[in-house]
Amino acid sequence: MHENMSSLLAGVQELASNWFASLDKRPVPASASADGLRQVLGGPLPREGTDPEALVRILGSAGMKGTVASTGPRYFGFVVGGNLPASLAADWLVSAWDQNAGIYILSPLVSVIEEITGAWLRELAGLRPTMSFGFVTGGHMANFTALASARHGVLRNAGWDVEADGLYGAPPVEVVVGEEAHYTISTSLRFLGLGANRVRRIPTDPQGRMSVPHLAEVLRGIKGPCIVCAQAGNVNTGAFDSLSEIADCAKASGAWLHVDGAFGLWAAVSPERAALLRGIELADSVATDAHKWLNVPYDCGITFCADESIHRSAMSLPAPYIVATGNQRDPHEFVPEESRRARSVPVYAAVRSLGRKGLADLVERCCRHARRFAEALGGAGFEVLNEVVLNQVLVSFGTAEQTQRTIAAIQEDGTCWCAGTVWKGRTAMRISVCNWSTAEADVEQSIEAMLRAASKHAR
Ligand SMILES: *Cc1c(COP(=O)(O)O)cnc(C)c1O
CA 202 from chain center: how many Å? Predict the structure, then answer.
């Protein structure tokens, strides 16, 4: 063991604590330029080693300037989420333990924690208790893994073993997606040989919800293997596809129903919002993130599948040296990776530290903050482009140029951070509230900064 392990870790603890203490006061964007960071961190490949304590000080000081306060309370860009204290602490233990979460015999602890956590999440999300699950790196890989299961399932029904025989000569698989499907659905389809563009795109309504009559009509024309991809939580508007109606259409035509619920799935824990997910229990596969709205550190997503044998067939990697461990669960059988991090542990910590009630509070609080943003900006005369059903708000500050200039001024100001987007052809600023630590005062302070910028650039 490193002779000064304990002083090394104490030093890290101090650096991390100082960094956390700065989060609330510092401007949200990074203060260092890329060149500044290269100067501090780069140079020629070191010939001699650096003492770990000195190294940690270099990283700690670069981290003060080069990081974005995206885990802080006033970051509303993209859809990111923060770091619950219990999850961060658990993540430190995960690094210390350095367990290989692939198979039970390599870490009984992690295998059992994953089994418990997956079951808890299934229940929280209102999924069927028989669904199998796997912990992957994020929403993208959760979609990929689920769609690999879907590909296996629909082709098996057509008498074809895609894992053994590949796609050459296989019955064609039709994939139907909403016009507003997240782009990681397209990249996943690409990886799976199903083609990003070989899909039928269903038009969506002004909120981004798939048109069910169009879907029904398209499905009536499809006879062979078919996968339908629906969405719970649009990344711009937060809107939900009508899952129960879509599930009825998919079942009637024998199609596989996949639901991308990267952040929206967690609306299920809120009694006020759970109705948005009506029908989710009918999905054949579901993808979600833990590192967004569940507020655990990167990287963590979860994939669920209604049929465990299909899920295993699509993912498992038989190898002669992997001995069967009786009834114990080998986590690698449900994910693309073999050796991997114990990423279920911070999720276990999130669920255990907050409980169902605390998670519901987290979700409801974020939704309330989003409503407040919409009311304040709408009240000041700016157009809110979406129905604020969840944690996402789209606001226009006038013309595309006025909106872009206002966003740039808000980013420059540094009190909070939001990015631009284009929604149905309109340039907008997107506000995503998904951090556990965002308080009412943060929202008010951010609204002031937004209105200050808008008063200069939007009129
Ligand atoms: C973020 C997101 C993804 C991708 O998730 P990653 O964790 O970034 O890989 C997929 N779908 C939706 C709806 C998302 O919001």
Answer: 23
Tokens encoding 113: 């924690």
Determine whether the shortest distance from the Cβ of 301 to ligand 1 is under 6 A. yes
Q: Please report the pLDDT score of residue 324 as a whole number.
A: 60
Contacts of 403 (CB under 8 A, 6+ apart): 396, 397, 420, 427, 428, 429, 458
pTM equals: 0.97
Phi, psi (degrees; rounded to nearest 5) at 267 = -60, -25
Locate the domains of the chain by residue range. 2-64, 91-349, 363-457
CA of 146 to the centre of ligand 1 (A): 13
Strand-strand pairing, 301-305 and 132-136: antiparallel
**What architecture is the 91-349 domain classified under in CATH?**
3-Layer(aba) Sandwich (3.40)
Q: Given the CA of residue 261, which atom of ligand 1 is nearest to it? A: 13
- Alpha-carbon distance 255 to 21, whole Å? 51
pLDDT digits over 141-183, tens only? Answer: 999 999 999 999 999 999 999 999 999 999 999 999 999 999 9
Query: What is the dihedral angle through the alpha carbons of 431, 362, 132, 211, rounded to the nearest 10 degrees?
Result: -40
Cα(183) to centroid(ligand 1), Å: 9
User: What mean pLDDT do residues 441-451 have?
Assistant: 98
Answer whether 298 contacts ligand 1 (Cβ < 6 A). Answer: no
CATH code for the part of the protein at 363-457:
3.90.1150.10
Task: Determine the atom of ligand 1 nearest the C-alpha atom of 234.
Answer: 13
**342 is written with which tokens?**
């114990």
Query: 262 C-alpha to center of ligand 1: Å?
Result: 5
What pLDDT sits at residue 91? 98
430 lines ligand 1 (CB under 6 A): no
Q: Which of 144, 259, 292 to mutate to test the pocket of ligand 1 (most atoms within 8 A of CB)?
A: 292
Determine the distance separating the centroid of ligand 1 and the alpha carbon of 305, expressed in angstroms. Answer: 18
